[in-house]
Amino acid sequence: MNQLKLNAKLFAAILVFGALASCEESDNGDDSNSCHITSMVFSYPEDDYGYSYASDVTFEYNDANQLISILSVDNETECYDSNCETSTDENEIFLSYAGDVITLTNSSYEDEKIEILISGDKLEKITSSEIYNGEKEIDEYRYIYSGDKLSKVENWDNYSNSSTSELTLYSYDEVTFSGNNISMVESFYESENANARKLGKKEHVINANARTNESISVGKVSYSYDTNTNPMKGELLALLIGGYEYFNENNILSEKEIYDHATYTYNYSYEYNDDGLPIIITVTDDEGGKNVTDVTYNCD
Fold first, then answer.
1. From the CB of residue 298, how many other CB atoms can be counted at a distance below 10 Å?
2. What is the pLDDT of residues 197-241, one digit of tens each?
3. Which end of the chain is more exposed for a tag (fewer CB within 10 A), N or C?
4. How far is 185 from 216, CA to CA, in rounded Å?
5. Predicted model pTM
6. What is the pLDDT of residue 193?
7. How far is the C-alpha of 255 from the C-alpha of 184, rounded, in Å?
8. Are 172 and 154 in contact (CB under 8 A)?
9. Contact, 185 vs 1, CB < 8 A?
10. Mean per-residue pLDDT over the chain, rounded
């Protein structure tokens, strides 16, 4: 949904999970009693069009058990009439820590970065910035809570509203919990009018750059879960692959995207190790597509 607007190039290496998995409670990845993901292998079997993809991702930590580097080697293969071509791309993401702020940069995109603000144990804000055509473009994601549970995520930016270069509200997600898991996320585009929510909503898809005098729902995602512990709860890099695994107690079993024009369903299955951590994650869609992720851990 809207959180996926986070810089895709900067975080192309992070596809299914993040890079830390806690066996016990952790604090932004610096707890010595934790299981660290040391590598992940993502594979997408060849489809009907002759395309296949694989990515080998490795993770490096400092002496304080903080993640400091993510190195990905990606291989894409395309086949036409039995002639296949494979391309390889390598990217490295670096993480640095200063107080409550975690900064992520990429060796291939020096003008791009993401800053994550976590106050205590609560995620407050993610700011993504890049230089585009000589101008600095900013996306800011603000996390709003009702009690101890997330209720809303607002996306502010400085480029979608042509009338100002200041940060303005572009879109938002409304989040519903069932127990300790997110059961529904509904996404909206916001208008320039600060009172747009009072003017009503329309249930249809609009152009992403369009602005009206109403908030407009662009789709919903509903989730179901198993009863196993989600190792990504509270782990910062879970935020960068869709975001909401960060807040869930358990692992997703199904994900249903609901739009006016179509509905898409994704089913998840897991193989677990003796510590109860998923080591093989398989995701299938309702058209038979499948991707598989193999995860390796080092538990202190």
1. 12
2. 323 332 222 333 334 446 778 899 999 999 998 887 887 657 755
3. C
4. 14
5. 0.78
6. 44
7. 10
8. yes
9. yes
10. 79
Task: Name residues whose C-beta falls within 8 Å of residue 146's C-beta, 6 or more positions apart in sequence.
Answer: none
Taking the C-alpha atoms of residue 13 and residue 57, their distance in angstroms, rounded to an integer, is 7
| CA pair distance 271, 224, nearest whole angstrom | 18
Beta bridge partners of 138: 129
Buried b (16+ CB within 10 A) or exposed e, 174-193: ebebeeebbeebbbbbbbee
Nearby residues of 230 by Cβ (< 8 Å), 6 or more positions away: 245, 248, 249, 250, 251
Q: Dig out the tokens for 130 from the structure.
A: 């890049």
What SS3 state is found at 237? helix
Is 9's pLDDT higher than 80? no
Domains of the chain and CATH, by start: 2-299 (2.40.160.190)
